[in-house]
Amino acid sequence: MARKETVHEILGMIIETNSLPNEEKAECLDAILIKTEKLKIYLRLACDLKIISPGLLGKTASEIETIGTQIGAWKGWAQSIKTGR
Fold first, then answer.
1. Helix 25-48 and helix 54-83, axial crossing angle in degrees, nearest 10
2. How many domains does the chain contain in total?
3. How many angstroms separate the CA atoms of 11 and 5, rounded?
4. Which has the closest alpha carbon to 56: 67, 44, 38, 70?
5. What is 2-65 written as a DSSP string?
6. CB proximity list for 52: less than 8 A, separation 6 or greater
7. How many CB atoms lie within 10 A of CB 1?
8. Best CA proximity match to 17, nearest among 29, 33, 34
9. For residue 1, what is the DSSP state?
10. Which residues lie below 8 Å from residue 16, measured CB to CB, with a gap of 6+?
11. Confidence band (pLDDT; 50, 70, 90) for 53?
12. Which domain does 38 fall in, by range?
């Protein structure tokens, strides 16, 4: 799939963010969330163009949503560390 690079970028960003000091993670997590939203749009477009099936779109979108939820929770934790709350 053409957006395989995007998935690799997201994984790389997660690995890099994990290695940062806790106080610096929130900003990078925002960038990961934006990248996952872009990936969801690419996938919807691929489905509309009949490059992938609606079933594959549903399964993949569900997995991306799970990743987004986890990143969002991580961001909340990172912000609490940053603000001391």
1. 170
2. 1
3. 10
4. 44
5. TTHHHHHHHHHHHHHHHTS-GGGHHHHHHHHHHHHHHHHHHHHHHHHTTSS-HHHHHHHHHHHH
6. 1, 43, 46, 60
7. 13
8. 29
9. -
10. 28
11. very high
12. 4-83
Model confidence at 62: pLDDT above 80: yes
Q: Provide long-range contacts, Cβ within 8 A and 24+ apart, for 11-14.
A: 14/71
Joined together, the tokens standing for residue 60 give 């993949």
Tokens, residue 64:
């991306």
Q: Which amino acid, residue 4?
A: K
Write down the pLDDT at residue 15. Answer: 96
Main-chain dihedrals φ then ψ at residue 75, nearest 5 degrees: -60, -45
Both tokens of 55, joined, read 């079933």
Task: Read off the pLDDT of each residue in 14-36 and give the average, rounded to a whole number.
Answer: 93
